[in-house]
Specification:
The chain is mainly alpha-helical. The chain has 13 helices and 2 strands. Strands 1-2 form a two-stranded antiparallel sheet. A hairpin with a 2-residue loop joins strand 1 (96-98) and strand 2 (101-103). Residues 66-288 form the ABC transmembrane type-1 domain.
């Protein structure tokens, strides 16, 4: 039986691994190769060494885009996870104990559907909808609700990136409410019951029981949201003024990659940006898993 196990595993994994190597690993290797060229996307390939990375180092738009990505990297996971945790707690535990079982607030099943609804919409559709919500004239939904002169939400450098962040949070919260709800569903009710008998309030239950027992799920959510913060391409490309404006106020690295590859015919430089984004994302994931590592809490 032992001797027959390994051929079975190899046979089962051979096709998926081959497809992954062909379409993912090979693409990464080719990107690393193209980052050392001045290729325009068509025609012959000319190797120029590290010139693209030197150019990137002196590119003010790159540093501005990186700063915007870092702002999203800090705020998107923090805000999304906090809101999702509170909502999930209310939907699963916030109603208190009834019949010896912790339950969610009234109507929690309905709220789960409402919170998850944004996940059913394509990100491009979400961007178009909120483009109208934040429209700078009186036809914009937000300006229509506010008194006074219309606010130039997406055309003002002070508000543009915040609008993008708000939409990213709105779109992501529902998924993490469901994720955290699933995690809370696996917490034995006896733990909540024992804490309640010891006089724990709902706030104590949240911070001293729920969050520690969900820490591994929160850790994964933080990594996923960080990766989303490094992307944000679709929203910025569709919602922002002049794709990354006004005056570069919403530009992100993924948008720079797209514009250099397809608008400016600088595929080599776009590949160099892609390599930098790859290592930034990898470094973030590794550091997050390292810094947030805790001993598992036994249930």
């Amino acid at each position: 039986m032992r001797h027959g196990r390994y051929p079975f595993i190899i046979g089962f994994l051979a096709v998926p691994v081959a497809l992954y190597v062909t379409f993912v690993v090979a693409a990464y290797i080719q990107t690393f190769q193209l980052s050392l060229t001045s290729w325009s996307g068509l025609g012959p390939i000319k190797y120029i060494g590290l010139d693209n990375f030197t150019k990137l180092w002196h590119d003010n738009l790159f540093w501005s885009s990186l700063r915007h990505n870092l702002v999203l990297l800090i705020l998107l996971p923090l805000i999304t996870i906090l809101i999702a945790l509170v909502f999930a707690f209310l939907l699963n535990v916030g109603g208190g104990a009834r019949g010896g079982v912790q339950r969610g607030v009234w109507g929690s099943k309905f709220y789960r559907v409402i919170f998850f609804f944004p996940q059913l919409l394509a990100l491009a559709i979400v961007a178009v909808i909120f483009g109208r919500v934040f429209s700078s004239d009186e036809s914009g939904l937000l300006n229509g609700l506010l008194p006074g002169e219309p606010v130039l939400w997406l055309a003002d450098q002070r508000f543009a990136l915040a609008c993008i962040l708000a939409v990213l949070v709105w779109q992501a919260v529902g998924f993490y409410v469901v994720l955290f709800s699933a995690g809370m569903g696996s917490i034995p009710n006896e733990i909540y019951e024992a804490a309640a008998l010891d006089g724990a309030t709902r706030i104590t239950l949240f911070f001293r029981v729920t969050v520690p027992l969900l820490w591994s799920t929160i850790q994964v959510a933080w990594v996923y949201l960080g990766i989303a913060a490094f992307d944000a391409f679709a929203l910025v490309n569709i919602m922002s003024v002049d794709r990354g404006g006004p005056d570069g106020a919403t530009s992100v690295i993924s948008l720079m990659i797209y514009r250099n590859a397809f608008d400016y015919s600088q595929a080599g430089y776009a590949s160099a940006l892609g390599v930098v984004l790859f290592f930034l994302t990898l470094t973030f994931a590794a550091l997050t898993l390292r810094v947030t590592r805790r001993d598992a809490v036994e249930m």
